[in-house]
Structures are given as structure tokens and as C-alpha cells.
């Protein structure tokens, strides 16, 4: 993407909150070390990699939490620990799964998708 001058953006950086990211043990441990939350660690990890983040919350306190990511730096070791959580497949809209395709096509009846 860099080579083609394309700016990566994370729409749904929390995988819509559906994949247990906020209770992921490695993220919890790293969050504790910096006095931050797993959500803040997720956002910070992305911005340190040059990825623009577009998180969503309907809660004011979470919006504030998601904005408070500019006063700490994840060190190299923690950046690598988080990178190692990569499952090698999308955390949402995994088009290899028929259930995911059905979920998208059923968007009018799907409370998650219709709330976007
Ligand atoms: N998902 C997509 O494919 C897609 C496509 C196009 C555009 N977008 C846009 O991208 C933005 C983000 O996408 P998204 O809403 O799909 O996914 P997201 O930001 O990855 O996840 C949102 C979920 O995370 C929860 N959350 C947010 N901050 C939190 C925090 N600090 N602690 C704990 N939970 C937290 C939200 O709950 P609460 O709201 O209850 O706090 C909600 O359940 C939205 O503006 C959306 O319209 C998304």
C-alpha cells in the first residue's frame, strides 16, 4: 500500500466488538502495563503502524477513552506481541465462511449491521 501511496484505514478497529478483543489476555496484560484499556492499546497499535483508526461508540466515556491514546507509546516488544495475535484471516466479514456471507446478505434483519 505504501508503494502505491495508499493510506490504510481501520474501519471497525475492534471488529465491531464481536470477537472478544476487549478480553484478549495479551491485550489485557499490555493494557495493564501502560495503565490503559485494551481498546486504547488496539487503537494505539494501529496508529503507531500508520493506520488511521475509525472506532465507533455510543457511550461518551468510551469516545473519550478512544481519543486518549496520544500520551503513551507501545514499545517494540509489545508491538510484536500484538502482531503475533494475527490469526491469518479476517476478524470480521470472513468471506471464506458461508455463515458470514449469509450474515451480510441478511443485513436488514441483522441488529448489528443495521445499527451501523
Ligand atoms: N464494520 C464495517 O464494515 C464498517 C463499514 C463501513 C463503515 N463503518 C464505520 O466504521 C465505524 C466503526 O465501525 P464499527 O462500529 O462497525 O466497529 P468498531 O468500532 O470496531 O466496534 C464498535 C463496537 O465496539 C464497542 N466499543 C467502542 N469503544 C469501546 C471501548 N472503548 N471499550 C469497549 N467497547 C467499545 C462499541 O460499543 P458501544 O457503541 O456500545 O460503546 C461497539 O460495540 C462506524 O462509524 C461505522 O459506521 C464500519
Number of domains: 2
Count of β-strands: 2
Are there runs of 5+ residues with pLDDT below 50, and where? none
How would a textbook summarize the main sheet? Answer: 2 strands, parallel
- Please state how the strands of the largest beta sheet are arranged side by side: 1-2
Output mean pLDDT: 90
Distance between the termini: 27 Å
Helix content: 40-55%
**Ligand list:** NADP nicotinamide-adenine-dinucleotide phosphate
Computed over alpha carbons, the radius of gyration is 15 Å
- The DSSP helix count reads 6
Q: State the order of secondary-structure elements, H for helix, E for strand.
A: EHHEHHHH
Structural class: mainly alpha
Shape: globular
As a percent range, the share of strand residues is: 5-15%
How is this structure best described in words?
The protein is mainly alpha-helical. It folds into two domains: 1-85, no CATH class; 88-116, no CATH class. Helices cover 42% and strands 5% of the residues. The protein has six helices and two strands; from the N terminus they run E-H-H-E-H-H-H-H. It has helices spanning 25-34, 38-48, 60-67, 76-83, 98-105, 111-114, and strands at residues 9-11, 52-54. A two-stranded parallel ribbon has the order 1-2. Helix 1 packs across helix 2. The protein starts with 8 loop residues before the first strand and ends with a helix. The mean pLDDT is 90. The site of NADP nicotinamide-adenine-dinucleotide phosphate has 19 residues, from helix 3.
